[in-house]
C-alpha cells in the first residue's frame, strides 16, 4: 500500500492519541462490502475518491466550511480498528501541518439514538448510510459521535436518572439533552425535543446556549483545519 510522504503508519497512530487504535491490512472478514474499493485501492488518491464517493451531498452541503477544507487537506483514508470495531480513518493535514484524524464508523452499527427526529435530515441519512458516527478517535468529539456513544447529559454526568440540582434550575432537564459531540473537553453539543428544530444546545458549566445546528457543527469541525 503506497503512502504519501510523511503519512506513515507510525505518524497516523501517533496522531490518534488512542492506544487501542490499530491499522488493518488485507481484507478482514467483517469488512463492510462497500468499503472494499477503499481498502483495495493502491494509492492514497484512489482511496480518498472511493471513500468520498459514498458521502451524501446534502450532508456536505450542511457543512460547507468544513467540507471545503477537508477535501483539500485530506491526505489518505485507511482502514483501522478501535475497540474491536472497524472504521475508515480519514487522515487530514491540520493547522501547522499536524495530522488530524477522523473516524468514519461502520454504518451497519447504526442504531437510532434518542430524539432522532431532532437530527437534521441530512445528518440522519449520513449516520444511517455512510458512517454511524464521524468523530475523532475518541468516538465522541469533533464531529458526530458514534451512535453508541451518544448519551443524555445526565448519563454523561453519571447520574442517568437526572441531575437534581440541574433539573431544578434549568429549563431543559438533564435527561432531555442528548450529547451528540463535544470539543474534546467540557463544551458539549446537545440535541433536545425541547429545542426548536434545527437548533443545538452548547452546554458548558451549567450554561445552555441554543445555536443553529449546521453552523455550530460546521465551526466545530473546521477548527482543527484553520491556520
Secondary structure topology:
Blueprint (H helix, E strand, L loop, with lengths): L8 H8 L5 E2 L12 H5 L3 H9 L4 H6 L1 H10 E9 L2 E9 L5 E7 L15 H9 L4 E2 L15 E2 H4 L7 H6 L8 E5 L5 E4 L7 E6 L2 E6 H10 L5
Antiparallel strand pairs: 1-2, 2-3, 3-4, 4-5, 6-7, 7-8, 8-9, 9-10
Helix pairs in contact: 5-9
Notes on the structure:
There is one protein chain. With 227 residues, this protein is α+β, with helices and mostly antiparallel strands. Helices cover 30% and strands 23% of the residues. It has nine helices and ten strands. A five-stranded antiparallel β-sheet has the order 1-2-3-4-5. Strands 6-7-8-9-10 form a five-stranded antiparallel β-sheet. α5 runs parallel beside α9. It is globular, with a radius of gyration of 18 Å. The N terminus is likely disordered.
What structural keywords apply?
227 residues; alpha+beta; five-stranded antiparallel sheet; 9 helices; 30% helix
* Topology, number of strands: 10
Give me the strand/helix succession: HEHHHHEEEHEEHHEEEEH
Helix fraction bin = 25-40%
For the biggest sheet, the summary is: 5 strands, antiparallel
Average pLDDT across residues?
93
Low-confidence segments: 1-5
Q: How would you describe the shape? A: globular
Alpha plus pi helix count: 9
Percent range for β-strand residues: 15-25%
End-to-end Cα distance, whole Å, is 30 Å
Radius of gyration: 18 Å
**Reading side by side through the largest sheet, how are the strands ordered?**
1-2-3-4-5
Briefly note the structural class of the backbone: alpha+beta
Amino acid at each position: 500500500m503506497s503512502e504519501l510522504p510523511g503519512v506513515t503508519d507510525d505518524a497516523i497512530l501517533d496522531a490518534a492519541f488512542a492506544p487501542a487504535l490499530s491499522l488493518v491490512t488485507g481484507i478482514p472478514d467483517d469488512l463492510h462490502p462497500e468499503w472494499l474499493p477503499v481498502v483495495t485501492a493502491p494509492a492514497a488518491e484512489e482511496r480518498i475518491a472511493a471513500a468520498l464517493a459514498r458521502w451524501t451531498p446534502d450532508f456536505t452541503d450542511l457543512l460547507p466550511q468544513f467540507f471545503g477544507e477537508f477535501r483539500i487537506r485530506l491526505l489518505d483514508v485507511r482502514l483501522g480498528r478501535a475497540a474491536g470495531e472497524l472504521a475508515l480513518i480519514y487522515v487530514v493535514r491540520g493547522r501547522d501541518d499536524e495530522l488530524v484524524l477522523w473516524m468514519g464508523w461502520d454504518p451497519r452499527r447504526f442504531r437510532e439514538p434518542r430524539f432522532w427526529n431532532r437530527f437534521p435530515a441530512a445528518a440522519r441519512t449520513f449516520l444511517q448510510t455512510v458512517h454511524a458516527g464521524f468523530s475523532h478517535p475518541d468516538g465522541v468529539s469533533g464531529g458526530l459521535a458514534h451512535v453508541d456513544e451518544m448519551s443524555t447529559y445526565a448519563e454523561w454526568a453519571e447520574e442517568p436518572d437526572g441531575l437534581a440540582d440541574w433539573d431544578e434550575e434549568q429549563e431543559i432537564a438533564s435527561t432531555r439533552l442528548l450529547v451528540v459531540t463535544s470539543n474534546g473537553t467540557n463544551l458539549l453539543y446537545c440535541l433536545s425535543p425541547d429545542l426548536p428544530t434545527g437548533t443545538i444546545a452548547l452546554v458548558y458549566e451549567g450554561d445552555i446556549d441554543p445555536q443553529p445546528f449546521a453552523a455550530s457543527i460546521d465551526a466545530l469541525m473546521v477548527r482543527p483545519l484553520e491556520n
